[in-house]
Amino acid sequence: MAKITLDNLAHSYYPKPKDEDDFALKELNHDWADGEAYALLGSSGCGKSTLLNIISGLLHPSQGRILFDGIDVTHASTADRNIAQVFQFPVVYDTMTVRNNLAFPLKNRGADPKYIAERVQQIGQMIGMEAELDKRASGLTADAKQKISLGRGMVREDVNALLFDEPLTVIDPHMKWELRTQLKSLHHEFGHTMIYVTHDQTEALTFADKVVVMYDGRVVQIGTPQELFERPQHTFVGYFIGSPGMNVISADITGKVANLHGTSLALNRGYNDLNGKVEIGVRPEFVALTKSDGLPVNVRRVEDVGRHKIVRADLFGNEINILAREGMEISPDMNRVTFDPEHVNVYVNDWLKAGEVA
What we know:
Shape: globular
Strand content: 25-35%
CATH class of the largest domain: Alpha Beta
Distance between the termini: 45 Å
Helix content: 10-25%
């Protein structure tokens, strides 16, 4: 296992980048703790796979360094970094049996045959393929081959890090849940440093100790699922995490009052001298639909999703979402909303402002 440090790291696919927009990865300076499980989360093209490939050694950064436990490995090969990587699509040896595919990384390093047999059996059980261990990989389905890839990545116990690049894309939904659970069990048992790339927030939030949210080549927040939900540091985190995501509404703010199209909204913190694009952010969970109090809204539709209802509404020309508890009756005269002041965040140019508590 290893602590991974990104030191002044950036990457451009252009040979002579001219400005920041030419960089797929903007400058990163982060420490990722030894033995923790991280998820790299963001939309397509945000730089997740680029960063993962730099960490693994498949790609050399345009600037900066990668350190494992303080040792510079920027120019080290993938093999010398002692990592295991699982890719989005299955990479298996079709002419080998499942057993020999799983055993290959251990045989390659001269492990004891008895240990290899025991470890392969253990991993075969973990990925649900004990019955197929002696079958050739060539006759198996794509999701079965991807399970072999996952197993081969997990079979070694001595790696510095396990890297997963959207490994469950071809796996059926039920097996995805089981494999994520197995990955978490493996992490708790052996304490590997794990980095898991995904654009699926459910995968990220159920797998990781900490989620690394990326947007436009930057890491915009690293935090626990609870931190990302309650205090998004960037508006992208707010509307990418959560279903539906955070409501973001333009506002003029002076002191502890937000002005929305001539209507005042009290805030729990004070803000002064805010320059730039000023917005408030509040999650649908902290918005309440009422008959008489709060701001005027126009309800467009109500979606019953079982455990709760999602109310889609317009607030001063902004689309907002409201979560209503299961069984709550929503009548035509419920045309106002209130926000829980404790959960109203203020953003300037998309970044969270802390504010002052009086």
